[in-house]
Amino acid sequence: MNERLMHCSLDLTRFTSQRPQAAYLHVPFCQHRCGYCNFTLIVNRDDLIEKYITAIRLELESRGDHGPVTTLFVGGGTPTYLPADKLEQLLELLMNWFPLEDGGEFSIEANPCDITESKAAILSAAGVTRVSLGAQSFNEQKLRSLDRFHSESDVALAVKLLRKYEFDISLDLIFGAPEEKLEVWENDLNKALQLEPDHLSTYGLTFEKGTLFYNQLIHGQISPIEETLDLQMYKCGINTLEQAGFEHYEISNFSRPGHRCQHNEGYWQLQGHFAVGAGASRFVSGIRETNHRSTTTYIKKMLAGDSPVASRENLSAEASAREKIVFGLRRLEGISLSDFYRATGFDVVKLLKKPLHRFISQGFLSLKNNQLQLTEQGLYISDSLWPEFLIE
Ligand code: SF4
Hints:
This protein is 45% helix and 22% strand. The chain is α/β, with parallel strands linked by helices and 392 residues long. Mean pLDDT is 94; it is low at 1-13. It binds iron/sulfur cluster.
């Protein structure tokens, strides 16, 4: 058996024999499309909520992946935008299909203004353990400039209610809003810390094609902040949160000890996951499938008994290994070369060859004691490193 074939057989064993232990459900409804958002979602079509739940039930039944998992994640859109009874119905459907193992993690994304006493009670009764709240900022002007529709006080109220039900709380924050000053970002970080979350995700604002902000950008109506300020803000986030006792464990994610997002940890280690809903992407037995992004198309397909899948990719052993490296390096602890070899049959150094040596010599990656990691410099430009690692 030549070396390449041996790799394939090892890797296929790895990717085909394990049933995923994670499941994702996409809920595409939102009250309003924020100017920077290009997620799969639909607004002003609450009339479709009922049909969407039926479509989810049909997709779950058609997949037949019934059984326990260790993490569940309900994302969107805004899952908590659903009326209370519909939210309850959907969560029950999901939990019946993918019961959560004891001690498992069940996350849901929420917008601050949706968290009412009754919805918090529904989340708790459904077994949700962790709520990821789209706080984004505590500055009214910045919230408006981000085209968000909640206020600072909504975030504090939501956190108070969620605490009552003992959820793990994660806050999403955005830096680099148009015309934002460093002081505004520092203040956002401090206000977030005062709420004592268990986890924080910080994202630099991006201008994605197809969004309102992208159009405004190309028409000169808004401008991004300077790159140096953007980097200063990212570093400021890392320093402030680390000083407050948070562990910086992934490029954009920080947790109190023991509060990492287990579901996302699974993604970054390229462990398989089930996924249902519009635009949802699953990775099972080495095959990645993505459903139609359009909510109406997704519903139509499911109600007609057709497949909702828009694209299907059977990843080669080598492509899987390369992706595993890229996702793995997003985690600050990086990749253990020997663990990686045991898991996939691939030698990282032989696989990545020249770009790996170049990035190490340029100081963007470090390889010490069998561990490959981003350096501090690498962290700041990480997105520019990945494309070369993915070329077979
Ligand atoms: S609330 Fe979140 S998912 Fe909905 S439009 Fe705004 S950013 Fe996008």
